[in-house]
Amino acid sequence: MKKLSLATRLSLLLSTAVIVIFALSGFALYQSLAKQIGVRDDAALLTRIDQIRTLLRDEDAITLIQQKPRLFANMLGNTESLLVLRFPGQPPLIVVNPGARPMPDITPVPADQPLNLASVHHQQAEDGTPFISAAALAPTRDGNGRIEIITGRLMSDRTQTLNSYRDQIIVSTALAALLVAALSIWLVRRGLSPLRRLAAETDAIDVRRLSHRIQFSDAPTELQPLVAAFNQMLSRLEMGYQQLSQVSADMAHDLRTPIGTLIGQTEVALSQPRSVGDYQALLGSNYEELERLAKMIDNMLFLAKAEDASQAMDWQIIDLAQLGEKLQDYFDGMAEEHAMQLEMRMQGELRADPQLLQRALANLMANALRYGERDATIRVLSAVRDQGIELVVENDGAPLSVEQQARMFDRFWRADASRHQSSSGLGLSIVRSIMRLHHGSCAVSSENGVNRFSLLFPR
User: Fold this and answer.
1) Residue 177 class from Cβ within 10 Å (0-12 exposed, 13-18 middle, 19+ buried)?
2) For the domain 316-458, what is the CATH code?
3) Where do the structural domains in the chain lie, given as residue ranges?
4) Computed over its alpha carbons, how large is the radius of gyration of the chain?
5) DSSP bridge partners of 444
């Protein structure tokens, strides 16, 4: 089933709302008119009885009826009315009933009581037309001094008036609905034109135009957050694409070097017969290059997994003092080779993934041992901050410039390009990925010949 467009749905909703409003308004007006007409007709019927009461009060009813029979017929005003005069319990003295309506059986209002709207009785004829009636006693000189007045009226004209008014309301509502539907389509399409322009502008953005930003100064207020969000998304995409391109180039460069070395050494060895010692030396050199390739690939695979936010984390409470002893035992041999010393001052507890935390600290310590000055001390310590728990690795070494500090955690970047054979350039980027998994941060600073790498874990 084809989904309706936003313009169509808005037009339908607007048209439906207008139809409902018109229908409810017409119904309310119809009910109000029907009530007002009903009150008017009831009052007219009671007025007729009051007039007959007044006429008969000071007259002889029988004499008046005999002399002026048409008088009462003229007082009815139309052929749908009914009038009966009689003494209580006796046959009618006069019956004016052009439509041959059945005489209503109702209790008359006493002569000493005034008439009100509650005195009118409402019924329906056989065809459903409303019929109103009322009865009252009036004083007279004849008989026992009281005469009963019964009158009624069939409301055909009122029914016709209301039906005509109802039909007009229906026609007006239908015409208004059609007009509103046409106008709403035009208005909605005009109102959504900024969205179409925004869609057209975003559709023109591709990989070659990631630097383009949506310029939509005349956008409605409601679209300004959307435009800002699109531009921020483009900035992130551009940055990610540039990083991906740079990573791909750096990866190709770093992989090409050991592969080229392997190929060159193998070609030289195969160019002529060699001794067993030469072949052993070649295999040893090739093994070192292959081991370096394997380590680089392992690091890249770890980074790819670390970018996945759904990676399962083994959260545990870690004793920092025990972790420091474990790392010191592991790096003591490397520190002796570089004529350095390790100073571990970690204490307290930290909630983290133990394997990832150990790898992050190990990368920082290996980096400090690799680039630190000989006969220096590598200091690993912990501190409690307001934001969380901070782990710090310090070493004495060549100062780092602001540009170097800004790129220190980028992939395949090395502060000392002359030492690229000993490092893949992925160690510190792995540290940054590990801290992102822990919702923490990493930083570097260099002052007074001391390079300081810190890891901040939030509470």
Assistant:
1) middle
2) 3.30.565.10
3) 6-165, 221-306, 316-458
4) 51
5) 453
Tell me the percentage of the chain whose pLDDT exceeds 90: 6
Any residues with CB less than 8 A from the CB of 186 and at least 6 apart, and which?
A: none
pTM (predicted TM-score)? 0.46
In tens, the pLDDT along 275-328 reads 888 888 888 888 877 877 777 677 666 666 665 555 567 788 999 999 999 998
Q: What is the DSSP string of 300-337?
A: HHHHHHHT-TT-----EEEEHHHHHHHHHHHHHHHHHH
Give the best-scoring range by mean pLDDT among 208-212, 236-240, 288-292, 346-350: 346-350
End-to-end Cα, the chain, rounded Å = 52
Per-residue pLDDT tens over the stretch 146-166 = 888 888 888 888 888 888 888
Share of the chain above pLDDT 70, in %: 83
CA distances from 52 to 15, 92, 95, 149, 458 (A): 55, 15, 14, 8, 98
Q: Which residues of 204-216 are buried (b: 16+ CB within 10 A; e: fewer)?
A: ebeeeebeebbeb
Q: Please identify, in words, the CATH class of the domain defined by 221-306.
A: mainly alpha
377 sits in the region (left: phi over 0; alpha: psi -120 to 50; else beta) called beta
Give start and end residues of each alpha helix (H) in 192-222. 193-203
> Dihedral, CA atoms, 103, 108, 114, 118, nearest 10 degrees?
-70
User: How far is 118 from 107, CA to CA, in rounded Å?
Assistant: 12
